[in-house]
Design brief:
It is built from 8 helices and 17 strands. The longest helix is centred in the C-terminal third of the chain and has 17 residues. The protein folds into 2 domains: 251 residues, QueA-like (3-Layer(aba) Sandwich); 83 residues, Beta Barrel (Thrombin, subunit H), CATH 2.40.10.240. Helix 7 crosses helix 8. It is α/β, with parallel strands linked by helices and 357 residues long. The chain starts with 30 loop residues before the first strand and ends with a strand. The protein is globular.
Length: 357
Amino acid sequence: MSREDLLSTYDYDLPEDLIAKEPLATRDAARLMVLDRRFGTIAHRQIRDLPELLRTGDCLVLNNSRVLPARLLGVRTATGGKWEGLYLGSASNGLWRLIGQTRGYLRLNESITVVNPVDDVLQLTLIEKENDGVSLFEPSSNESALHLLERFGSVPLPPYIDRKQATSLDRERYQTTFARHPGSVAAPTAGLHFTPELLDACSRRGIQRAEVTLHVGIGTFRPVAVENLSKHRMHSEWCEISSTAAAKLAKTRASGGRIVTVGTTSLRALESACREIDAEDATSTFREWRGETNIFIHPPYDFKSTDVLLTNFHLPKSTLLMLVSAFGGLDFVLDAYRKAIEERYRFFSYGDAMLIL
């Protein structure tokens, strides 16, 4: 088994004070580490410099998924014991797919009571237990899941932010400015840096943009549990490449521009589409595609969709760090992470960014 296939290869020590637990005053104030694969160089810039780091004719690819207020707080109706859950989606029969935490085990047909700030009540009854800690619950209301989550849910911040409850600032900043399609339980964090003004500056530079959708799922929160990466299986996530986006990306490539993918979620969506296209029509570059993907990208990997990647700094031993290592080169990326710690970059969702050219 090669070094690239070992989980321990992707481990590193991060000082606690480099974990960004609060957003910066403005979205585009983040630092930007620039990795040039051609020359093997690392430079230190700002996110605001992005337009001048890209070229006229390039195309930004943004994930327009919107984070759901998927975190639910309640009590076991029978005992009053505290319960916390995360909404993962709805099954075809309308039951809610949830993971939850409480003392002891929930029994089938046991109910959870969720209360919102105006004392409105939602009950969730356990109907079935699936694998990996996911269970199916029946809500007491026939209203849409999105409507009920807006009333009873809150922003599902990552565990390392270590806040009992999302603040009003979190509700604004843990969401991209271009989010349109509700469905994620975590933000596509590279997109959090973009302000309308930064996007306008890119447009004035002649940089196009295309939007894709990938709804970030539970895999974001689950660690890799095996040392041999060939045995790891990703959870599926829904994604879509529209015909409009596909045409824009194909035109960019045909005219000599670069595909600049913003975030690992956008990259996974594009590579999933390319994988399906390759299986059906090897002459196509980009086309409309939608479906579930469980693509797991780690070194070595032959990227077909992307020329430049903008991404945040990711957790040790995470599938996101593996993807970035596949794109940038394992040793180059791990060396960049060591330099980022030396230079005191801010890490994770509210942290700084990396541009891999």
